[in-house]
Amino acid sequence: METKNYLKEFKTLAATLMFSGAAFAGTIKPFPKQGIWRGVFNVSESQVPFNFELKGKDTKTAVFTLINGSRRDDFHVERRGPDSIYIKMNTYDAALVAKIEEDGRLSGEYRSLVPGFRGNSLPFIAEHGKSYRFVEPGKDIAPATDLTGKWEIKTYTKEAVPASIAILKQKGNKLTGVIMTVVGDTRELEGTVQGNEFQLSGFTGPSPFIIKGIINDDKSISGEQGFGIYKNLKFDAVKNEKVELPDPYALTFLKPGAKFGFTFPDLNGKPVSLTDDKYKGKVVIIETIGTWCPNCTDQTIFLSPWFKKNQQRGVEAIAIGFEQKDDLEYAKYTLGKLRDKYGITYDILFGGIADKKVVAEKLPALNKFIAFPTTIIIDRKGEVREIYTGYTGTVTGTYYADYEKKFNKVLDELLAEPIPAEFTSTSSSKSK
């Protein structure tokens, strides 16, 4: 399906539903109740719980907030027909589509909106007034041990998977934490420990995530990670406070003798190159991103305000988006949503389909491409000075603090370097 047709059909569907709602105004069901809700996705034979809060009594005031530990993500609610609501997952091309049942519950599905992606949906139900995640109040079982700490994870799969560690915090039965890999993190997870069993889940807009397992006699843990509509991976883990991931600054680098460069269209189709006058003599931050990628969103939330604050110092930034369709019109829609949502004022280009092999082909100066996002920092001479693979969000604590500290240190040092003479003379001649 072409993107233009997709957008046209999307608007037609919305108009049809609005007309349907008007035609059956007498049977419009009350807006879902305000307050705390508990939802459950059915994923294969597993259930993945999630919690949210609904505020507002109509679509003009309603805010849908996903809750994961201390994290909050807000979304807009639309009425679609007399008995249904529609919650677009902000910049992710997916939505929760739900029917308001006679008893006030919500039933529906998490649905991919990417044109041509069929079967990518997860059914769910949700009930008002339930704030627990996995276990009803009063039914907790005393935990066998305290899982607080850092865990070294070994994953079992035929394909190579990134090294990973877990940082967990337990208070009584309540368990929160994050899984970190060289390509990013899971965002904050929330769950429980019951006897010698534990469970964690997370849903922030992209596909839901779940971990469940057991505590072994030797205090190690074993279990399975589920990635919503994608895949399941079995794992073992041992507590190891000294375990670390590979250095994210050493994973991706330039091939010997290679010169980094590119030409990609912006969202209006205009070719943009790193050699354009706009970037000469400037420090340039390159981000490879995708609107489907939660770590890319978190990195954008960090970079967008940083850029606004520092642009006058002689820095530029470029986000190269690799999307779920190799279609500029579709990328204009998805990346445009990202730009508007987070107030991006730097350049956004379209690189092509979201495939690591494609990125490696289009950026051949890199030794390999491992992760969305990858940050490439160019100095005033046009030379690559730093490449950071992945992104560590705020939930990672000291890891995020270290990332932010080094990012600012590197940029401060590069911005303090003098502008090469050939660029200052070019600027002077242009200003005359």
UniProtKB/TrEMBL annotation:
Its signal peptide is: 1-25
Where do the Thioredoxin domain residues begin and end?
251-416
InterPro entries in the cross-refs: AhpC/TSA (IPR000866), Thioredoxin-like_sf (IPR036249), Thioredoxin_domain (IPR013766), Thioredoxin_ResA/DsbE_sf (IPR050553)
MF-aspect GO terms: antioxidant activity; oxidoreductase activity
Q: Which domain of life is it from?
A: Bacteria
Q: Has the keyword Signal been applied to this entry?
A: yes
Which keywords appear in this protein's UniProt record, sorted alphabetically?
Answer: Signal
Q: Which residues form a coiled coil?
A: none
Q: What is this protein called?
A: Peroxiredoxin
Task: Recite the lineage of the species.
Answer: Bacteria, Pseudomonadati, Bacteroidota, Sphingobacteriia, Sphingobacteriales
